[in-house]
Amino acid sequence: MTFLPIVEQELRVAARQPSTSLLRFLVALVGVILWLGQFAQVELRRHFRAIARSDYTPRFRGPSEERSRITLPAISDATLRRDTA
Fold first, then answer.
1. How far is CA 3 from the centre of its chain?
2. Is residue 47 domain-resident?
3. Is residue 59 within 8 Å of 53, Cβ to Cβ?
4. How many Å apart are CA 24 and CA 74, to the nearest integer?
């Protein structure tokens, strides 16, 4: 049974090394990136299924389409003269 205390001591020594902390951080970072990628994939899949099921029209239209729908108020000559005076 002297084997387990030796293993415990070696694990404690290895845990104190700076490279172990860096490795733990990198593994956690990769895990978070993979989790976010999976989350984004599920959300995109849900979004595209919703598009396929309905007659989806995008909320954002291109700048040229937005500009064509903008109407400016009519400005009379009297208004222009009043603003410059």
1. 49
2. yes
3. no
4. 66
Rounded-to-integer distance, Cα 42 and Cα 47, Å: 9
The one-letter amino acid at 14? A
Answer whether residue 71 is part of any domain.
Answer: no
In a domain, 74, yes or no: no
Closest listed residue to residue 58, CA positions, set 66, 16, 78: 66
CA–CA distances in Å: residue 30 to residues 25, 73, 78: 9, 55, 67
Please give the tally of structural domains in the chain: 1
pLDDT tens figures, 65-77: 555 555 555 666 6
- 46 within domain boundaries: yes
Task: Give the model's confidence band at 85: pLDDT under 50 very low, under 70 low, under 90 confident, else very high.
Answer: low
Range of the domain at 41: 8-54
